[in-house]
């Protein structure tokens, strides 16, 4: 996975009916765009994320 600041991180729900989480990458802590990322979620919360296989990056 590769991301840049300003890209969107989308995380699909784990179970049927779970909503998709969406946030903006505000910091890239790995080398060459690799995880972990600091993400600002749509609810305003920020956190360190190690994306799993249910996540993908949408370039800005």
TrEMBL record:
Please state every residue range assigned to the domain named DUF1918. 1-57
Basic and acidic residues composition-biased segments: 9-29
Organism domain of life: Bacteria
User: Entry's Gene3D superfamilies?
Assistant: Domain of unknown function DUF1918
Region of interest (Disordered), residue spans: 1-29
Protein known as: DUF1918 domain-containing protein
Q: Which organism is it from?
A: Nocardioides thalensis
């Amino acid at each position: 996975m590769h991301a840049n600041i300003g890209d969107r991180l989308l995380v699909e729900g784990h179970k049927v009916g779970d909503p998709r989480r969406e946030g903006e990458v505000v910091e890239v802590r790995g080398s060459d765009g690799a995880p972990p990322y600091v993400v600002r979620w749509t609810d305003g919360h920020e956190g360190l994320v190690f994306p799993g296989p249910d996540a993908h990056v949408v370039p800005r």
